[in-house]
Amino acid sequence: LEEILEDRKQKGLALPRFLYTIPTFQNPTGTTMTGERRQHVLELANKYNFLIVEDDAYGELSFNKSLPTLKA
User: Fold this and answer.
1) Does the pTM of the predicted model rise above 0.70?
2) pLDDT tens per residue, the chain (72 residues)?
3) Residue of 5, 68, 7 whose CA lies nearest to 39
4) Which of 47, 67, 52 is CA-nearest to residue 20?
């Protein structure tokens, strides 16, 4: 993601205004974004000035400890 954003910035192309993500049990793969990855996405949002729309509908369904939302 960072490489794409930086490439677009260097080429003078428009950057995204928002990122839509399902960080927990993403469909269709069922993957969950790690805490480190979530933090990195937040850093990119700050650096490249875009909003994050987090769809965390499945965040409470984990058998393990739930990860904090991106906002947290």
Assistant:
1) yes
2) 999 999 999 999 999 999 999 999 888 898 999 999 999 999 999 999 999 999 988 877 766 766 677 776
3) 68
4) 52
Return the structure tokens found at 37.
Answer: 């990855």
- CA proximity to 1, closest of 43, 28, 41: 41
User: Token pair 């393990």 is at which residue?
Assistant: 64
Nearest CA to 30 out of 49, 58, 55 is that of 58
Beta-bridged to residue 44, according to DSSP, are none
Q: Are 45 and 51 in contact (CB under 8 A)?
A: yes
HEC states along 18-46? Answer: EEEECCCCCCCCCCCCCHHHHHHHHHHHH
User: Could you tell me the two tokens for 5?
Assistant: 């954003």
